Amino acid sequence: MINNYRFILKYLAQIILLILSVNSCTNHPEIKPDWVINEPNTDDEYWVGIGIIEKPLPDDYREIAQQRALNEIASQINVQLTSTVTSVVQELNYDVDEYFSSIIETRINQNINYVEYVDHYESKTDYMAYARLSKKKYFADLAGKRGKAVSTSLEFIAKSEPFNVNSFNYLSSALLEIWPFLDQDLDVKSPDGNQKRVNLASYIKIQLFDYIDRIQFIPETDPYILKIHSEDGSFYKANCVDKNTLKALASIPVLYQINNRGKLSPGVSNTDGVLSLNPFLDGKISKPTHISHTLALSELVDSSLIPILAPMVRNTIVALEIKGPDFAMRSDEKNLGNRLNPPFISSAIKEYFVVNLSGKFTTENNADYIISLVVNTVPRSEEQDQYGFFYVYANAELSIISSVDNKQLYSKSITQVKGAHTDINLAGNKALKKLLKEIKSELPKIVEQL
Question: Residue 150: beta bridge partners?
Fold first, then answer.
């Protein structure tokens, strides 16, 4: 009897446990964290962000929710900073919205280690991530980075003197160093040594303007005289100097254009500060009338600073006048051992270079090129042939030398050009006239070598 009673009790207990278990599984209420029910707000200590992603959830739903929480924190900082925009940002021609959008993203990424992902929660419909960023840590980190940036910027400024082509790079780096902190206090003692306090960003901008203004290009003549087919004189040259000290400025990059046509071509001043530019642009422009050149800012500063500095850059325009090269003539022209009078072959050569190259003939000391001509005639025989004719052969040695380096640019021997006549002197003259035709056919080839 007792055993039966115990069996019944045991059986009932199992049934009761089963019922309680089923009831527990089916009626247990969903417990939501307090931050889900009462969404936390940003306060004096933290910026708060809640990232939500609805179901169905992608594979990387946790990362997406956390990023959305981070974006919400960033948007709150952006609102606060936008309200404190200073005149410095506008003075530097930055778009306010673009500037702060960029620096907030940078600052949040730099403070990613200070962001706390407090909790997460998954419901039947979505997944939520709760993140916060300590304002104390954020501003302490910002102050530290700003101080370091100011110190580095001042070091770059110190290196920008004395003024030279590298000064632009140093000042560009100095401004970029403090670029993320333009909304912060950047007042420092003036780097030029006086006790006046200045905004560092404004100071750098003024220095860059001053450096641009100090660069001067002084052409050797205005209008500038170009000598075509002259090794040295066919290039436009200007002295690049510091307006304040009149010292030569080396390695200053420019962009130049001829007759306002075609793309801009690059140039740079040499170690002596001389800017040498080719106005003929590899033969593409045959009659240059003027040249214009300006600083190549892209070679001097970071591209982000070009819109700030471009209005300060001058465009130098110089008129061009074309002159031909200066020639000297060495000639020895003989017919049967007698000097020609007048020496018509050398005269024809001179005429060609004057007409076709606008050349001028002068002394050897003043010439760009020296033409050497030796002409003579030799009879085949001192006696007439059976028909009463004399036969005379003309020969010529023609060459041209550059007076700059004494280099021979062209040389040609023309021999055995025959002339016939019943008079031996006239036979020589006929040979010389034929020789002149052959020489004239060679003259364009000479021009190609200049």
Answer: none
